[in-house]
Structure formats: structure tokens, C-alpha cells
Specification:
The protein is α+β, with helices and mostly antiparallel strands and 180 residues long. 21% of the residues lie in helices and 33% in strands. The protein is globular, with a radius of gyration of 15 Å.
């Protein structure tokens, strides 16, 4: 974990880097069933959102216990080491889940966009193609379970699902460069 935190900080502090892929960073990941169970839970918990059939963006509430999800505690520890107390609860997580993938549907992900905060996406299930843009150039990456994608605020990116996929996202924290 210490090396991952060090690598994150290096990327975050480098003004020439607007994104970074950390391959196999957290290999213990929640199962597809865990993620689909969370979709069902969200329908009654008040955090359910589906932009189109088979695609969900679910914000984790403070009272939602996801500690039994493989690797969730480790992900939170890494985020806490980087962002400090801004990650003191799991309410900073957002789940992105897609049952759709490009062999079945033409719309299988999230179109090219920017986010309003730095974003850290931990891919937990399935495979995606991430396209990140820097200096008018597109950079494509195959992202698989256990990989983490770091995207600086304002970086254009898009995601296409190659298989059913799920990920847990942290965004909105304030980076604390001097935190030990």
C-alpha cells in the first residue's frame, strides 16, 4: 500500500500528468453479485440512479455498510492516506455498474466528458477501454479488475465496457500533499 500511495502522490504533484493507470493495484475486488445486490439495495435506500437501462451510478450513503466487499477497506485506506480526513467514511464512494457492453449495445459506457473534481476509479469487475485525452491526443487503456484509474480535474475521458463491469469511484477529496 505504501508504494501505491507514493505513486499516487507523484502523479498528483506532477503538473505534466493529467491521468495515470495503476495496473493490478488492488487485486482483491468485490464480486459481480455484491455489485448487483447493491443495485437492488439502492432502489430502496434512496441513492438509485439509472441513466439508461442496465447502467447505474449509485452514491454510497454514510449508513451503507460495504465493509464486507472484498478490498473496499484497502481502497478506503489508500484514499485516506492520500486525502486525509476527507475520506473518513465510505460515503465518498460512488458505484458505477454497467450490465451493457459493446457486443450487446452500442451504448455501453460513459461518453467523452470531464469531471468537476479529481477522480479515482477502482475497476472491480469486468473490462473496459478508457480513452483519456492530453494535449489533443487520445490515450487508450485496457482497464481490468484490480486496476485503478487516476484522472485530474478537467481531464476529458470516456469509458466503453467490453464486458459487464463495475467499479468504485472516489472523487471530491482535497489532496493533502504533506500528510504522512
Amino acid at each position: 500500500m505504501e508504494q501505491l500511495v507514493k505513486d499516487f502522490r507523484s502523479a498528483m504533484e506532477d503538473p505534466t500528468v493529467n491521468h495515470k493507470i495503476f495496473k493490478k493495484a488492488l487485486v482483491q475486488t468485490p464480486s459481480w453479485q455484491d455489485m448487483m445486490d447493491y443495485v437492488e439495495f439502492s432502489k430502496t435506500a434512496g441513492n438509485y440512479r439509472s441513466d439508461y437501462e442496465g447502467f447505474y451510478i449509485l452514491h454510497c450513503g454514510k449508513d451503507h455498510d460495504i465493509s464486507h466487499f472484498n478490498g473496499a477497506d484497502e481502497f478506503l485506506k489508500v484514499m485516506t492516506a492520500i486525502y486525509g480526513d476527507d475520506t473518513s467514511s465510505q460515503s465518498c464512494f460512488t458505484f458505477v455498474i454497467s450490465e451493457n457492453y459493446r457486443a450487446l449495445k452500442s451504448r455501453s459506457g460513459i461518453m467523452r466528458h470531464t469531471d468537476t473534481t479529481d477522480t479515482i476509479h477502482w475497476n472491480t469487475v469486468g473490462a473496459t477501454i478508457w480513452t483519456l485525452y492530453q494535449d489533443d491526443q487520445a490515450h487508450e487503456y485496457l482497464v481490468e479488475p484490480g486496476d485503478i484509474v487516476y484522472i485530474k480535474y478537467g481531464t476529458e475521458h470516456g469509458v466503453e465496457s467490453l464486458t459487464p463491469r463495475a467499479g468504485i469511484v472516489f472523487s471530491g477529496g482535497e489532496y493533502h500533499p504533506n500528510k504522512d
